[in-house]
Specification:
By secondary structure, this protein is an alpha/beta fold. The chain has one domain: Rossmann fold (3-Layer(aba) Sandwich), CATH 3.40.50. The protein is built from 8 helices and 11 strands. It has a 9-stranded mixed beta sheet with strand order 2-1-3-4-11-10-9-6-7, with helices on both faces. A two-stranded antiparallel ribbon has the order 5-8. A hairpin with a 2-residue loop joins strand 9 and strand 10.
């Protein structure tokens, strides 16, 4: 049986691993699966033939797409083939940006600055027709932690959601390929610890860690996207 591939592009903050685990644990829990193929591309693990996979999820990363590291560029090239083959793909944060880069978009530092914590997400009304995001509320909270964004859309990409600091908060790149700048796999405790461990940097950037922590809430609507993606992979019709 074909598996969903979890393309891991980095690791979480070392200090929070003992309490929370790492990206693969959060995605497995959110997607409701335990049997997936994990590929640590940032450690140079080889990528499989797209035809051998049922679907692909690309994680976030402490790396930057704009740095164009060799492993990242190889993954971008591979993703072009995956999307062209019609395999369901979901990119999250770094994965979202990498998909945009792979298809001709432009990624770089957000002129509006870092976005971290729980933010209001505005879904763009497409009459509920998007298979992944169409059933979400028009406005819903989502967890974030990023400083780079998709600055220019690839040709034919469609905008599905915005946030106060990012017009390209969710995108659809092809019939079965999506990117989310927000983190549906993050729980409220996880994003709270991200804020705590980056508090000094946040203050240096003019942000208020205490206010960000106070605003953290659960984000069940955003989290539901992961199981929806699993259902789309398992029931393609």
């Amino acid at each position: 049986m074909k598996q969903i591939a979890l393309v891991k592009t980095g690791c979480t903050i070392e200090q929070i691993k003992p309490r929370h685990g790492d990206f693969e644990n959060w995605f497995a829990a959110g997607m409701g699966i335990t049997d997936f193929l994990q590929i640590d591309v940032f450690r140079q693990q080889p990528l499989p033939a797209p035809a051998d996979l049922a679907g692909v999820v690309i994680t976030g990363s402490p790396a930057m797409v704009s740095a164009r590291e060799d492993w990242s560029e190889r993954t971008a090239e591979w993703l072009r083939h995956v999307v062209h083959a019609g395999i369901p793909v979901l990119g999250v944060c770094y994965g979202h940006q990498l998909l945009a880069h792979a298809h001709g978009g432009r990624v770089g530092p957000n002129p509006a600055g870092r976005q971290i914590g729980t933010v209001k997400t505005q879904r763009i009304d497409m009459h509920g027709k998007d298979p992944l995001l169409g059933q979400l509320p028009e406005i819903f909270p989502a967890q974030t932690s990023h400083s780079e964004v998709v600055l220019e859309l690839p040709p034919d990409a469609r905008r599905l959601a915005t946030s106060p600091l990012d017009d390209n908060f969710a995108l659809r790149f092809a019939d079965r390929a999506w990117g989310l700048q927000f983190h549906p796999e993050f729980s409220a405790p996880v994003v709270s610890d991200y804020i705590r461990y980056r508090a000094a940097d946040l203050r240096d950037e003019g942000l208020d860690p205490e206010a960000l922590l106070a605003a953290v809430t659960a984000t069940e609507a955003a989290r539901s996207v992961l199981k929806k993606f699993t259902a789309l992979v398992q029931n393609p019709s």
